[in-house]
Protein: DUF1236 domain-containing protein
Amino acid sequence: MKMHFTSAAAGFLLLAGIGAAAAQDVVIAPEQETVIKEYVHKQPLASVKVPGVELNIGSTLPDTVELHEVPNVKYRYVVVDNRTVIVDPGTRKIVKVLD
Structure:
């Protein structure tokens, strides 16, 4: 009986961890995304290379990468490998890759 309880507890903790990770996902409101896309289109940047960093949500950009402000939006952007990347300036984590 004790083994069943331990397995159930371990499974619950695993699911709780997955739920906590999902809760940390950043959701950009469609209106904000539209504002960002329009601004980026009007303010094009030269693409930079960032060796060793995959352009995935949650990846962290190094301090050497300059992030650019979007007025009235808390996020910043940069163009990496010809892809516009939206970044949380506090953590420098990628929150969205625009195609």
Remarks:
- The two ends are 53 Å apart (CA to CA).
- Residues 1-23 have pLDDT under 50 and may be disordered.
